[in-house]
């Protein structure tokens, strides 16, 4: 299983009513956590079947980003020539960029 740091893996399961065609979505962590089948349609009380499932990666609310360690910068990013001029050692290659 592919884990992503700072994100929670969730499955969005789309169910479809076989009588009226109405769709409903369920959000579960695993497919085995689906309610017992057959589900019933909220509109016509017909039987629902699972039509589609998709993996979603949602941000974990318990993970806090440390903005002091890697704060976003304002303005344009530095150009290679400006970075070379500000460095201690100047070379012809760095000035020609």
Question: What are the salient characteristics of this protein?
Answer:
4 strands; elongated; four-stranded antiparallel sheet; single chain; mainly beta; 60s Ribosomal Protein L30, Chain: A
Describe the secondary structure blueprint for this structure.
Layout (H helix, E strand, L loop, with lengths): L6 E11 L5 E6 L10 E2 L6 E13 L20 H7 L5 H5 L1
Structural write-up:
The protein has helices at residues 80-86, 92-96; strands spanning 7-17, 23-28, 39-40, 47-59. The longest helix has 7 residues, at 80-86. The protein has a domain at 7-61: 60s Ribosomal Protein L30, Chain: A, CATH 3.30.1330.30. β3 and β4 form a beta hairpin. The chain is elongated and about 65 Å long. A four-stranded antiparallel β-sheet has the order 2-1-4-3, with no helix packed on it. With 97 residues, the chain is mainly beta. Helix content is 12%, strand content 33%.
Mean pLDDT equals 77
- The radius of gyration over CA amounts to 26 Å
Number of strand elements: 4
CATH architecture label name of the domain at 7-61: 2-Layer Sandwich
| CATH level 3 topology of the domain at 7-61 | 60s Ribosomal Protein L30, Chain: A
What fraction of the residues are assigned to beta strands by DSSP? 25-35%
Category by helix and strand content: mainly beta
């Amino acid at each position: 299983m592919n884990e992503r740091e700072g994100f929670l893996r969730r499955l969005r399961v789309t169910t479809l009513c076989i009588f009226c065609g109405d769709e409903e979505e369920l959000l579960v962590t695993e497919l085995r956590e689906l309610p017992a089948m057959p589900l019933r349609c909220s509109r016509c009380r017909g039987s629902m079947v699972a039509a589609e499932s998709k993996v979603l990666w949602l941000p974990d609310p318990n993970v806090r980003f440390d903005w002091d360690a890697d704060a976003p910068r304002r303005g344009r990013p530095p150009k290679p020539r400006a970075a070379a001029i500000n460095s201690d050692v100047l070379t012809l290659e760095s000035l020609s960029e």
